[in-house]
Amino acid sequence: MELLFVVLLAASLSLGVRYIFRERHTFGSAMFPAIGGAVAAAVWAGLTWLDWSFDGGWIWVVSLAAGPVVCLVIGLFLPKRRLKADAELLDSLSRA
User: Which terminus, N or C, of the chain has the lesser number of Cβ atoms within 10 Å?
Assistant: First the structure.
């Protein structure tokens, strides 16, 4: 049950990360919540396998912070690559 709460909270926090970026039109609106929820679920599962107690505070902090942090890192690099790829595709299509 706690895993469900972690995924939902991390997805909600990751949705807010989307609005930090100016070039947010280069990726979909559901991408960050999906990535943030998946990362938080993976971190939660990994930490429980490492015998972190699910009722402890640190497992919640680490799991809920991991999703938005990964989304922040992706958001820093993805728009530049997407704009560059779009420009290259437009150039190649306009030559044909």
Answer: C
